[in-house]
Amino acid sequence: MELSTLQQTISLKGKTAIVTGGAMGIGLGIAYRLAEAGASVIIADINEPAAAEAAKSLKGKGWEAVSVKTDVSDEKDVNETVAFAVKSYGRLDILVNNAGIYPTIPIMDMKPGDFDKIIAVNLRSIFLFTKAAAAQMIKQGQGGKIINITSIDALHPSSIGLATYDASKHGAWGFTKNSALELASHNIQVNAIAPGGIATPGTGAGASQPVNPAIEAILKKFLEKIPMRRMGEPDDIGKVALFLASDLSSYMTGSQIVVDGGVLLA
To answer: Active-site residue 251, yes or no?
Structure first.
């Protein structure tokens, strides 16, 4: 058996990918690597101006990318985003469920509406996009790749105020495993990435403006727990997403890759 070259194995040329929450942070880091590898990337984000700017930056490098405003918790928006991908590029091969929110609200202060919103954005969205994308992949008959961005908090509790976030991420990991079972017969691989602390505008660590002193103190304390003594970068997740989206991971499904600088070891 003659093996494909590394260039052929990692190439995503001719593939179409949707990256939810792809306008900035981890999502943009993932979109960058997928586009660089040759995929046509749809940046699906509720922040329409930021998504458009992200797509523009990728196109400026000679890669193929477009943006679409998407509320990932809304079934109509999700179905229209998948249809937009097919209309734009003729197919859909890769889905990255990255969009997520993490408001800090202690249980005793949380209202049912707060709980519902976090679950809708972080978990319901994965169900909606997986169902819509998988239907298109099955129709195409050539398999596909679904990558869910979970968290190390899918494996252990985080901090007080993030109980619902933790629950959503535990749910995302459970959904990953079960959907991998269901979709394997269609050659659709479903895997997850569990990031640790990543320097992004959302965490405050990747912001260009001064960091709130309270957040800075939390980040400093968290950094002390990381054996590698640094926060991760969006590209640290982007490179792992490329691995899962390419043929480098051709015999993997239902797996979760932890990318945390060793923090779970501590």
So the answer is: no
